[in-house]
Amino acid sequence: MFRIIIFLITNIAVLIVFSLVLCILGININTIYHLLFLAIVFGFSGSLISLYMSKYIALRLVNGEIIKTPRNNIECWLLEIINNQSKILGINNPELVIYSSNDLNAFTTGARRQSSLLAISTELIKKMDKNEIQAVIAHEMSHIVNGDMITMTLIQGVTNTFVIFLSRIFAQLFSGINSDDNDRNNNQIIYFITSLILELVFGILANIVVLWFSRKREFYADAGAAKLVGVDNMIIALNKLKMNYNKFNIDNSISSFCINGKYSYNFSELFMSHPTLERRIQALINKTYLS
User: Fold this and answer.
1) pTM higher than 0.70 for the full model?
2) Residue of 95, 123, 140, 218 with catalytic role
């Protein structure tokens, strides 16, 4: 599932560029239809750009290496597992990437189900047994086959559109930019500042919705993995992650990519891209998302 931090960074950048372009060019949006059209164009731009750059950005962030030809038995075994699961799920093999990290983690990304990337940390390979690794791979493969990367892109594009549209509407009402008074320059400054502030506020609220959906997709990915490798193996793998997550600090720049999920309480959980491991384990025990 292509993940939240890259989405947020790219989309915030697009929103800022949107505001600056309109200000520099002196473009006044006089109709709701024009505003809605521009909001859709710019709203989906950030999510689409981040989606199509996701593999490149991910490789840069983790300094990973694509394994095209296996150099040892473990790499040969990993490619075999990926190949077997891909055949079962009816998708092309994702590219395997191994990256150096002290944290047990894995993630997948890519613009299409048939052209994706699956990255696994060296620590996960070192600390987990083969059944646990297969369960982690199955979780990531479920993200791919469920089309979570595309779905997240569409949701992010829709929320971006609403953020841009509503912030501009309210900024116009607040600044009186469409009025015929003589203080038009001051109104434009107020409009610009107000729209930026509202984009930030609405953007935070919109991302809470995106993060909520991201957490839901993790439950379904766990359920998909359980169907591939068995519920017990998936629970064992999550318990292994639970025992190890508090021993290492996850690099914040890649935490949103990962299978791991830190424990959290109440309000702070609204800003998590993953549910807590305790909730994911309980969902598997209760078979909540298994059908």
Assistant:
1) yes
2) 140
Backbone region of residue 20 per phi and psi (left: phi > 0; alpha: psi in -120 to 50; beta: other values) = alpha
pLDDT at position 170: 84
Confirm if 175 and 194 have CB atoms less than 8 A apart.
Answer: yes
Residues in a beta bridge with 118: 96, 108
Helix (H, G, I), strand (E, B) or coil at 117: strand
DSSP 251: P
Of 140, 107, 105, which is closest to residue 125 (Cα–Cα)? 105
User: Residues 38, 168: contact at Cβ < 8 Å?
Assistant: no
Burial string for 201-227 (b: 16+ CB within 10 Å, else e) reads ebbeebbeebbeebbebbbbbbbbbbe
Q: What pLDDT digit, counting tens, does each position of 89-110 carry?
A: 999 999 999 999 888 889 998 8
**CA torsion angle 254 255 257 260 (round to 10):** 140
Positive or negative, the CA dihedral 190, 39, 7, 212 is positive
Per DSSP, the three-state class of 258 is coil
Q: What is the rounded distance in angstroms from the CA atom of residue 85 to the CA atom of residue 79? A: 10
Cα–Cα distance between 99 and 76 in angstroms, integer? Answer: 16
Identify the pLDDT of residue 255.
Answer: 44
Is residue 140 part of the annotated active site? The answer reads yes
* Rg for the chain, CA atoms, rounded: 22
Provide the greatest CA pair distance for the chain.
76
